[in-house]
Amino acid sequence: MRQRMNNKRTTSRREILSHDADGLKNFWEKKIEKQTVAYKYEDARRSNSALSKLREEWRQRLEHRINMLQSLQEEQRRQLYATPKESFHPKANTAA
Predict the structure, then answer these.
(1) Region entry Disordered: which residue ranges (predicted)?
(2) Residue 12 pLDDT > 70
C-alpha cells in the first residue's frame, strides 16, 4: 500500500511541475510577443518621424559650412604667405 501512495504522490508532483512549466512558457511567450509588437510599432513611428530627415539636413548644412570655412582659411593662408612675383626678380621690371 505504501508503494502505491508513493507512486501517486510522484505522479501528482510531475503533473503540477508540468502544468507550472507550461504556464511559465506561455506567460513568457506572450510577454515576448507583446514586446516584439511594441518594438515594431516604435520602429515604424521613428521611420515616419521628420526628426531623422531634419538631422540629415542639418548634417549636410554643417558639412557644407565646414568645407566653406576650410577653403576660406586656405585662401587666406595663401594670400598671407604668398610673396609678390616682383620680389623674386627685381631687375626684371627695370628698363635697360
Answers:
(1) 77-96
(2) no
